[in-house]
Amino acid sequence: MKLLAFIAIAALSFSGNAKIPKFDSAASRIYDLKIQNAKLAVFTTHMPLIKEQITSQLSFLVGFFNHYNSGPLLSHAKFEVISVKEDQSGRGKFIATYNATIPVAWNNRNSPVGSMQVTLPHRAGPQFYGQFLNAMDSGNLSNCHDHSGALSTANLFYHFRPNNSYCNFSDEAIANEYVFKLAATFTPSALQTSDKAPEYKKLWADGLLDVFLVFAKDKPYAANQNDVGSISYYETIRALYREYSSERFNFALNEQLPKFVQIEKTLSNGQKIRIVAMLVEKVSLVSQSEINTIKAYSTKADYVMYNGHAGLGSNIDQFIRLVDFPRARYQVYFLNGCDTFSYYPTQAMTRVERMNPGDKASKWLDLISNGMPAYFHTMAPNTMAVLRELVKQRASYRDILSQIDDYQNAAVMGEEDNLY
Questions:
Q1: Distance (Å, whole) CA 97 – CA 89
Q2: Rounded to two decimals, what is the model's pTM?
Q3: Residue 54: CA atoms inside 13 Å, Cβ hemisphere, count?
Q4: Is the pLDDT at 12 greater than 50, yes or no?
């Protein structure tokens, strides 16, 4: 076998050289998945393209681990290519071999394991994903996805379930046609923390808790009464009025439902809470006026929450582009969408550090995300559960996260340097 290239490169993160914040959760613990000699069939020796295709291949870990009610931290996956050799198997022209390390939020309901076999597509790219789609949609891999929605080449990584019952990758002839089975170690990570809490003194430093809640519809431009995103917004503001306003809630779930509400209340201890909630069609479809609103309220908020579709990560990236991060102001964010842990927005860390030169992002930002899907019917109770604890100013993060729907596998990152 002819060695065409041997490349030893610095570990590559999905996000460049992003620092990995630490982690805690009531539903899971953080593990390091380490794959030695992982393989990908390619048709090029051009290293940037090989790296892009490896990144695409590793994205299928979302579906792989969702099978176990767990989620990979893809934004902080690191890998190094160690060789590119001619392929003798017929899968591609070359085989790229690489080592990878990926943090994973491993659900507490699962038994600890020291090793596992990881199944990933043996190629990446539109042509192969088209073949993969056909096989998963109506061919011999029809039991190898979660059957939760329409499949496309863009979302195969999300629905992929190679360890489903009756998924026939146990048939080596079928497996060889589509996947590599990769040996991996799976051990507790040094990123795990415990017993940390939000920095309540910073959140309430001025005696006022500023809260900014952004909701997005399930289907843009749908009638409010028929849209589960609008319904979750409506149920949340109704609960907010009941607990944090002396005014009567007098809105109907129809097209006259206001897309922006502001509530203020003086608490029994003399402190105040100010809550702004807004409903948008979709974060990628906001008007200039809505952009201005998001920027104005996010920069002065103590707690910011997004409730809506993650859009396979695109909506999370867009939301983080829309907000403004303040200088020297501690904030807590909750990105309450599907698998937002896997789409952890490292650009948030970069922007916070840019606003606070010399400081780690974790000094100023704690970010809550979900290792599993979130559903619209849980968004109102999740919103209220976290907010109540921020008002009480006593609970640890683990206690707060235990009140979020257990299925979501919610976790916090960036809390490691909190004083509490």
A1: 14
A2: 0.92
A3: 32
A4: no
